[in-house]
Amino acid sequence: MSGSATDRRLFRKRTVRDVDPGGKRVLVRVDFNVPLDRDGERVSVADDGRIRAALPTIEHLRDREARLVLVSHLGRPKDRERELSMAPVSARLGELIGAEVRQAPAVVGPDVEQAAAALAPGDVLVLENSRFEPGETKNDPQLSDALSRLADLYVDDAFGAVHRVHATTVGVAERLPAVAGFLLEREVTMLSGLLEDPGHPFVVVLGGAKVSDKIGVIERFLEIADAILIGGAMCFSFFRAQGLPTGDSLVEEEGVEPARRALERAQRSSCELELPVDLVVADRVAADAEWRQLDGVEVPDGWMGLDIGPRTARAYAERISQAGTVFWNGPMGVFELAPFQEGTRGVAAAVAAVDGLSVVGGGDSAAAVRQLGLDEAAYGHISTGGGASLEYLEGRELPGLAVLAD
Ligand code: ADP
Ligand code: MG
Question: Are residues 207 and 161 part of one domain?
Answer without folding.
Answer: no
